[in-house]
Write the structure tokens for this entry.
Amino acid sequence: MNNSFATYLKNNAKMTDQQLEQLEGAIVKKTFQKGQFLSQKDSICKHAFFVESGLVRLYTIDSNGKEHVIQFAPENWFTGDRSSVYFNEISEYYIDAIEDTTVVLLDANFNNRAIEISPEFRIYNEKLLQNHIRHLQKRISMLIGASAEERYLDFIDLYPDLTLRVPQWMIASFLGITPESLSRVRKELARRNFRP
Amino acid sequence: MNNSFATYLKNNAKMTDQQLEQLEGAIVKKTFQKGQFLSQKDSICKHAFFVESGLVRLYTIDSNGKEHVIQFAPENWFTGDRSSVYFNEISEYYIDAIEDTTVVLLDANFNNRAIEISPEFRIYNEKLLQNHIRHLQKRISMLIGASAEERYLDFIDLYPDLTLRVPQWMIASFLGITPESLSRVRKELARRNFRP
DNA sequence: CGTCGAATTGATGTCATTCAACTACAGTGG
DNA sequence: CCACTGTAGTTGAATGACATCAATTCGACG
């Protein structure tokens, strides 16, 4: 069985095998098939997720029925509407599986136990949040200031493998442009001999 | 002297007067005049800030020399490039005072002491980060999906008082449009008898 | 009153959207 | 095995939203 979560905690939160054993009971995993929902809008999302394998997306649907991808989460990423978990609020987001996916379910209980067991975990968890904020701010400044082409180049720079795993129309949705526009951006890049 | 930070911690992080006394030594305040920098790009930002009074903005300047406002922080808000503080990295952002402003300087030391003294503080701090993430995600989905007008309406809904305190060209920069476009959006709203 | 930056307005340009047609390909059922 | 269907991706022409540039106007302040 895949156990990348334990490995991840060892490497990043510097947890020991002993501590991980203590946590064992709090670790719950679940598998979703391609296309299944991990969580839906207007429901209370009880967990965040750590993706062990596969790929999921977090997105909204606006008042015109259009999807907007907020985040992709491939293996070893965290995702989920944490504020729904945390504040027990109704979620604004959908999360579904782009590929068959196995995740670890993370709830408040898990968090508290992990912090109890390992002070390092608390530090790491905070770092994660800070880092997340940093990414979001970067993305905002791209959306404010950069053209569609610049945003696409930034995307393939940041997530080179996702370029192949995610259908083009979803990437367009992530970039905030239409699939047609992305197609044209790619055509133009090809014309200028751009190599991915 | 203004002591809104203590009040804030009492109300939000549920800290007691005793705990606050213990923290006293770690609380450092500083005042900036309108136009002064709290922090600049390419320097390591040693603190985050809690704004006791006044108003600051956090922004970048892109490769074309254009400013993009990432965040406004009026009284009782936190701001700062936390990732620069946290990871000791060079900051991407400028922070300057839009009005004469008094802030509390928050560094890693302050954070650690506060967490030591009050477990509630740790919880609250985490909530703050979650909340920040929620706001940023909302903003991203607005930038991806909403028109200039919708974004402006959302802005005055979220920050009604800032509409008066912040010059229009900065609001435009926050919304990701030009001052001219914002002017036209406002004109159009006025034509339709929109009341702020 | 004169100055300087902010805000408005108009004319024009650019980038991305929209809508529609068409191609490519994968899956389904006869 | 081939026709039928549906989805992704591409392309073209027309449209729309916002940007750019230039010319005023407004308003605060010395």
